Amino acid sequence: MSNYLLCCDWGTSFFRLRLINSSDYRLIEEVTSHQGIASIFNSWKATGERAGIAREQFFRDELTKQIAAIAHKSGSNLDQVPVAVSGMASSSIGMEEIPYASLPFAMDGSQASIRHFEARETFPHELILISGVKSQEDVMRGEETQLIGLSALLDSFGNRPKEAIFIFPGTHSKHMYVRDQILQNFETYMTGEVFNLMASASILKDSVDISAFNDFSEDNLKAFNLGLKEANDPLLNRLFTVRTNQLFGNLTKQQNAFFLSGLLIGSELKPLQEKEEWQLVLCSGTNLFPFYQQAIQDLNLSERTTVIPAELIDKAAIVGQVILFQNQNLKV
């Protein structure tokens, strides 16, 4: 078990724990749940804090349950197997708040902000808690670990770009500017969240139908492309046209959902047309990926875009955690 590592990605609303062989990044077993950081923190506030249980201990207890579950699935005794945790566990509502690392940030992980915990009798696992990265006006947690791993994988394949903007679609999309193996800057776009709010909690909710949002028919793609084109105009004005598209019978509600998506993704990606000196790396792995891939094509950005398949992005998080754990062990 000396080469085993428990890799934990603990997001705001999702938990994933993977047992891997760190020598070859092979996945042995995994467990997932919706016991994200937010729900565990709320449980601690409601019951744990009142009972005098320290927040860190409360999170360790939850982690212990998940380790027991993966041990049962794998048929192994995982005592003494170390744990690397990234994501929101290092936030103000996580296990312990760890300061962000700052830019510029090296892709070898040497500048990562990490808290190291020794194994205990009640928790027989060495543990590292990985924090995120901040700029003067932005923050991220988790994506930097993926980026470290992806950079190492691309390097091993011999196709790491010298300078590129890595695009991670999501609820809060990230554009990460990497030059000469240094993260120089990054930007967060609330594209996914704004779409969800507009489609479910605004006046526009009765003008769109997202029940068949995976239907990339010719008419739906035309509506998406129309949204991309209109992203040139002031966004707050163009958003209201989602309503008038439906009122005037210009688009069906399903087509209108694609129009709204094109409008928002276009607002995010169109500035990249002016950054001609940068290569683009589109990282798949979310249900938003097909929309971004279509936008890249429609905006004539395909020639300087490399698409990273979902399985490689999935592996990148593991590789990043292994690199950060090994770096930390060299320091302690």
Automatic annotation (TrEMBL):
Molecular function per GO: 2-dehydro-3-deoxygalactonokinase activity
InterPro entries given in the database record: DGOK, DGOK_C, DGOK_N
GO biological process: D-galactonate catabolic process
Keyword set, alphabetical order: Kinase, Transferase
Protein name: 2-keto-3-deoxy-galactonokinase
Organism annotation: Larkinella terrae
